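@channel anyone free to eyeball this complex?
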Amino acid sequence: MTSAPAPIKAKLRIGDLVFSRSAVFAGSMILVTLAAVAIFLIVQSIPAVVASSEDASILKTNFWDYVGPLVFGTVWAAALALLVALPISIGIALFISHYAPRRLASVLGYVVDLLAAVPSVVFGLWGIGVFAPALVDAYAWLNENLGWIPLFSGTPSATGRTILTAALVLAVMVLPIMTAICREVFLQTPVLHEEAALALGATRWEMIRTAVLPFGRSGIISASVLGLGRALGETMAVAMVLSASPVITFQLLTSVNPNTIAANIALSFPEAYGLNVNVLIATGLILFVVTFAVNAFARWIVSRRKEFSGAN
Amino acid sequence: MSKRIEVRDLNVYYSKFLAVEGVNLAIEPRSVTAFIGPSGCGKSTFLRTLNRMHEVIPGARVEGEVLIDGNNLYDPDVDPVLVRRQVGMVFQRPNPFPTMSIKENVLAGVKLNNKRISKPDAEELVERSLRGANLWNEVKDRLDRPGSGLSGGQQQRLCIARAIAVSPEVILMDEPCSALDPISTLAIEDLIEDLKQKYTIVIVTHNMQQASRVSDKTAFFNIAGTGKPGNLIEYNDTTTIFSNPSVQATEDYVSGRFG
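replying in thread with the prediction:
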């Protein structure tokens, strides 16, 4: 029996081995951590999902009625924040990438990144101490003059601690990451395409519209989805700024506002006992699912970029 | 539709570095002028000063005058945007807008400046421009397909169609064939011959056969050494430059005895 020639084995080097094993270990830790969190959330949530108001005092009827307004509040606040932050971050990113003189641009980029380093509790303090009181008059004016729009109807809050204030604070918090991503994408616009537009007699803004924005479109989308993910999970600032009740309402200016999942957990957890703890953990599971869905969506958008070959 | 270009005592700087020095040149309307010379001698830089595209590069500036039919491009109240509408440009690598269809690419320049164009006019202009660029027959059935799906040579002709759609007076071509195969190169060269009837064409090329094939006049640029500015050495009829140049450096370059 003739045996096939033995395959040539690469020489085993100790450095390669150490590196590859530690890389595999680091990579698998992510999966282990994620799985551990998911298992914890699911196991702890099961009793809560089937519980009634007799089992857990925090529930009025059942779990789904409890979590509904919270999911609404979470998504609503995050969406409002995104709506405010997106145009501003595109504007800042364009200014840094295409308008500002180089030295100013690098300073500005640094400042925007620094904004990301401010702890959220500081934003919360600022929101509650400075921003909310400052907005009271603006809210009253909006209510008086634009009250016929359902969003601005109702009795305006006397403290300014409304869902709109929370959304604006969130907008400031998601601005740095969104600006950073948009800026990077805009900077990668092929010079060839910018010059093509300019050589046709485009003004700078027209060049941005014909070359930069179409090229950066999917980058803008993934920036906003990442910003949305951050806004969905933000806890401290919302917990501090928002005065909340368990309702679903689109009114922005009243003192009756829906809470967000994360803020609700932070506020209710210290007093929770028994099955109430499970209920809060179950809301956490819902937040996990929502955030996961948003991130998966972002991944999908970013992967679509591959086929969208800008440089050819 | 075609204008005379006159360049007087032109110096081009990148910040403090003098890149091109003391160019004096007159380009006649409805002619093809080729710029030849070794890499880094400033031909492309100089070409870009003819429609102020060098201003896109940070730090680039110009001293001297470029007159198009007597109007100085560098007059303080001349808008570079308007200059570029009169003086179109085709680049070294084909650069159709990747997110636009073939048709949108042709119309890109026309739709700038918030101009509206009616649908039949647009169709007519697309056909006229694509015919002008010898591309119509190849793409007429797929005008709504992305421009980046065409071959390199077709993309370059699409870029030429895009440039002539805004009806410029002058077309500048910066090594338009250097990324193309010989067949596509031939197609572009034939096209230059046609375009000459209507436009003033200035072409930078590394290919001396190409210069002798397509151009009426040739300008030879050279550089004394690294860090020195580029100069216009000789400017004359193409046949003279290639058969009987008056400067030794030109003869060395065109006969391949350079360096």
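from a first look: DSSP finds ten helices and ten strands in chain B.
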